[in-house]
Amino acid sequence: MKKLLCAAGVTLALAMSAGAYADKIAVVNVGEIFQKMPAREAVAKQLESEFKSRATELQNLEKDLQSRVEKLRRDGATMKQSEREKQEKELMAKRDQFAEKAQKFEEDNRRRQMEERNKILSRIQDSIKSVAAKEGYDVVIDANAVAYAKDSVDITSKVQKQVK
């Protein structure tokens, strides 16, 4: 809560100091624009198809591991000691392989999502600059960083039209 209040205070101070030097200030809701972009859904589908084969492979590995664990649990008491140890070693190797692949999958997926997110945010930023230049705004502040702003200074809809 203290961090939020501190951030709000700093933002207010910056906005007031910017207001002292700027003739026209606008606000824009970047989060709303990002959520409403059709490109975001298309990118999500693209990433899903890009990672689908790896996700399926991981699911199959997980099912295989579960069946091996269940088999070892069920038949372990009746197995020879050497056979049970062999099964346990194989199971541990498969579990390590699964964990490594799952971690790599998560890292790659997260990296690609960030790349695509940054591309979309860059398009939004370019649109904000374009609208601000066309409308003659000196400063544009994210609506989430402002406690109050008149609707007349909100350029979210204009940026949204431009970014499509």
Automatic annotation (TrEMBL):
GO terms for biological process: protein stabilization. It comes from the Bacteria. GO terms for molecular function: unfolded protein binding. InterPro entries: Chaperone_Skp, Skp_dom_sf. Pfam families: OmpH (PF03938). This is Chaperone protein Skp. Residues 1-22 form the signal peptide. It comes from Providencia stuartii ATCC 25827. Residues 44-108 form a coiled coil. SMART domains: OmpH (SM00935). Transmembrane segments: none annotated. The keyword Signal applies. GO terms for cellular component: cytosol. Keywords: Coiled coil, Signal. Belongs to the skp family.
